[in-house]
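Case study B.
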Amino acid sequence: MSPRPANAALARSAPLFAALGDTTRLYVVSRLAGGGPMSIKDLTDGSEVTRQAVTKHLNVLAGAGLVRDFRQGRERVWELRTKQLQEAHRVLDLISTRWDRALERLRQMVEE
Amino acid sequence: MTDRIEKQILLRAPRARVWRALSDQVEFGAWFGVRFPPGTFKPGQKVSGNITHPGYEHLTMDIELLDVRPEHMLSYRWHPYAIDPNVDYSSEPKTLVTFTLEEAPEGTLLRIVETGFDQIPLHRRAEAIRMNDQGWSEQTKNIERHVTASR
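Model:
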C-alpha cells in the first residue's frame, strides 16, 4: 500500500462521514457498538430522543451501509454492520496479495 | 478503505523494458497469468485470452484498454476474478486498473492502483476468491519454474 493518502477513497467515504456528522446518529452508533443489536425502544430508553427521530436517523445510517435491521422474535432490531466491513477488508487483502505475487513475477521478468 | 488497492514497486530495469512487459500482450500475460494473442495494447481495444493456471485454462479473461501512453501510463477495466463459468458477470461493474511508470535513480518506479471494488457485490468477490485461491498458489510455482528455466 502506498503511504500517500488515498484521496479517492476518502471522497468515497464522504457519505459515511456525513452519516456520522450528527450527534444523535453518533449516539445511536455508540449505543449499538456497545450493546449489540437493539430495538428502537432500547435505543430511546433513557434518552430524550423520540422514536420517530431515532427511526429517521437509523434510516440515514442504513443508507450509508453502517447499520441494518432484522427481526428478532416479534421485535425489529438494529445492528452495526462491522462484519460486512471486515469481510470487505479481508477480500481486498487477498486481491492485494495476488497483486504482490504478480508483481514479483514481473520483477523477475524485467530484472533478468 | 475498501474501494482500492495501491501498489508501488521499484524495478531495477529501464523504463522501456518495464513498458514492454506491460504493453506487449504476450509479456503481460506471462507475468499476469493469461494467454493473450500476440500484439501490443491499444487504447479502446478489447483483449481476451485464456487463464493459464492449472484447472482454470478453460476460463477467459477479458480486459478493455483505456489509456495507453508509452512509457507513462496504461489502464484497463475488467471484472476482477470473474472465474465462475456459471455466472454472467457482464452486468456487474468493472474495476479500473492503472499502471503508472516513473523514472527513478535506480530503475523504474511502477505504481498500480485498482479501484471500484465498492461497486461489486461483496459475496461475489468472496466466492470468486475462495474458489480461486488454491489455483493461484499452484500457478505461481509454475511461473517461477518457467522463468527459471528460460534464463
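Chain A touches chain B at residues 1-2, 4, 6, 8-9, 12-13, 84-85, 87-92, 94-96, 98-103, 105-112 (CB under 8 Å). The remaining cases will be described in the next quarterly update.
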